Amino acid sequence: MSRYIGAIDQGTTSTRFIVFDRSGAIVASAQKEHRQFYPEPGWVEHDAQEIWRNTLEVIAAALAGAQLTAADLAAIGITNQRETTLLWDARSGAPLHRAIVWQDARVERRLPELAKSPGEARIRATTGLPLASYFSALKLAWLLEEVPGALELARSGDALFGTIDAWLLWNLTGGARGGAHLTDVTNASRTQLMDLRTLAWDPGLLATFGIPAAVLPRIVSSSEVYGEARVASLAGVPVAGILGDQQAALFGQTCLAPGEAKNTYGTGCFLLMNTGTTPVASQAGLLTTVAYRLQGAEPRYALEGSIAVTGALVQWLRDSLHLISASAEIETLARQVETNGDVYFVPAFSGLYAPHWKSGARGVIAGLTAFANRGHLARAALEATAYQTREVLEAMQRDSGVALAELRVDGGMVVNELLMQFQADILDVAVVRPRVTETTALGAAYAAGLAVGYWRGAADLKANWAVERRWVPAMDPARREHLYHSWHKAVARSLDWVD
User: Fold this and answer.
1) How many whole angstroms separate alpha carbon 256 and alpha carbon 291?
2) What average pLDDT does range 41-60 have in this prediction?
3) Cα distances (Å, whole numbers) of residue 315 to 13, 36, 129, 236
4) Is the pLDDT at 103 greater than 90, yes or no?
5) Which of 81, 268, 283, 461 has the maximal Cβ count within 10 Å?
6) 3-class secondary-structure state, position 136
7) Residue 118: per-residue pLDDT
């Protein structure tokens, strides 16, 4: 049997290829950033061809760096930024437009019209998702309306829609020469076009959004062999796992039992709780989504709270305000002050996601006095991530009736120990960082490995999970509630900025 499993981790800002061994340890890794395009305020786009080129480069680089070949890999999995929407020509493989990123808010103008017919209640009941610019359906509808000839190509099957997982799989397995046009249930559940219970595209929603069925990929499980790679560096390797990035992190953290939860700190922040085989309808502003589905098994569902801007706020301080020159400097700068100086930063750059779902909110910095300096701004930016996470966790506990004993964490920001301690303090819950923090890629590797028998089952995966660091609450309760109360005052001032 081949010795390793590979995973493509295609994220909002970069693409990575990571090779894991049977214990879940990283054997090889390579990463490359891609460009962000902002053609108009509130618009965010990616070049899908650049993402594909970067994918090939990082695969080759990781394998070469560890002196591995395709023969060393039992399978590969894919995990991806979700909701990001792409339409491409099935004959040439060329994108018809740059990919519209999940953060993009260009379709907000259509929300009031859809709220009337068929109505947000019907959409949420079918898909588990609120009516918002976040999801893929409206982005795809925009492409079909605005790109000349796109609708005709879509109706004839000569244009293909996909989230980034479908784009990568199609190219890996042959592209225009017979590539597999598939997406897994986790990514399909984020389009606002799939029925959560039947796990099939909903004809009524397709009609509502004006989307022809011929453009859609076939929905498959998260763990099965979809085909063999036909690119040189991976020739003959089975592609056998697909999970949207946040579901992949849940799977990689082995949150496989109802009530187990994780939070991923990346460009945005995403808190997911496994709710078992029954979808739980949220009454507190959360999303109901598919957690994963193994081949031949019932789907597992999750509650999710999505926060649009967390790590992206640090990038903004670096790139737009030039407050720091590298993202890692944010912790050093924040440690120059003892408190936030009563400064609060609400990063509602494109509205607020869970649990508020206020598309008209915009970012504010509240509480400024002449006392505030660069350190206070840096600390307020980090604390914003922790406050938003508490809002989501409280909503999740109300919906599920489960009080968490600990929160498993992963993603790029978990190396920031100041943030992790403050997160434990403001939640009054232990925060746990695992030994392997690349849990998104690990989840995709687990899904692929299970499909080909590299791992035998859940017991093998749980045996790999181990704690690297635990933070416990150490804040005075009165101070905790004072800070959180002030945060809510700042949030109130960010709402309804856009009429």
Assistant:
1) 9
2) 95
3) 11, 12, 28, 39
4) no
5) 81
6) helix
7) 63
Integer distance in angstroms from the first to the last C-alpha of the chain? Answer: 60
Length of the chain (residues): 499
Q: What DSSP string describes 434-489?
A: ES---HHHHHHHHHHHHHTTSS-SHHHHHHH--EEEEE---S-HHHHHHHHHHHHH
Instruction: In whole angstroms, give the CA distance from residue 185 to residue 127.
Output: 12
Helical residues (DSSP H) of 280-373, grouped into ranges: 311-319, 329-334
Q: Which residues contact 370 (CB under 8 A, 6 or more apart)?
A: none
Q: Is the dihedral of CA 374, 379, 382, 385 positive or negative?
A: negative
Q: Which residues have CB under 8 Å from 65's CB, separation 6+?
A: 28, 30
How distant is the alpha carbon of residue 352 from its chain centre? 16
Please give the structure tokens belonging to residue 171.
């190219």
Predicted local confidence at residue 283, as pLDDT: 84
pLDDT tens-digit profile of 351-374?
888 888 888 899 999 999 999 999
- Would you say 292 and 447 are in contact if contact means Cβ atoms under 8 Å apart? yes
What's the token pair of residue 185? Answer: 């249930």
Q: How confident is the model at residue 26 (pLDDT cuts 50, 70, 90)?
A: very high
CA distance 242 to 7: 10
Q: Mapping DSSP to helix (H, G, I), strand (E, B) and coil, where does residue 422 land?
A: helix
Inter-CA distances, 496 with 51, 283, 369, 388, Å: 35, 22, 24, 18
Which SS3 state, helix, strand or coil, does residue 362 take?
Answer: coil
Task: Residue 454: name the closest of 136, 270, 287, 238 by CA.
Answer: 238
Between CA 287 and CA 406 the distance in angstroms is 21
Of the candidates 230, 334, 315, which has an alpha carbon nearest to the alpha carbon of residue 268? Answer: 315
Do residues 307 and 449 lie in contact, with contact meaning Cβ atoms separated by under 8 Å? no
Say what the pLDDT of residue 1 is. 55
* Residue 27 CB-half CA count within 13 A: 21
CB burial string 298-322: b at 16+ within 10 A, e below: ebbbbbbbbbbbbbbbbbbbbeeee
**Could you give the angle at which helices 439-451 and 245-252 cross, rounded to 10 degrees?**
80
What sign results for the dihedral spanned by CA atoms 324, 329, 331, 337?
Answer: negative
Bridging pattern class, strands 26-33 and 99-100: unpaired
Task: Select from 80, 410, 400 the least CA-distant residue to 257.
Answer: 400
Residue 456 φ/ψ region, left for φ over 0, alpha for ψ in the -120 to 50 degree band, beta for the rest:
alpha
Could you tell me the pLDDT band of residue 117, with boundaries at 50, 70 and 90? low
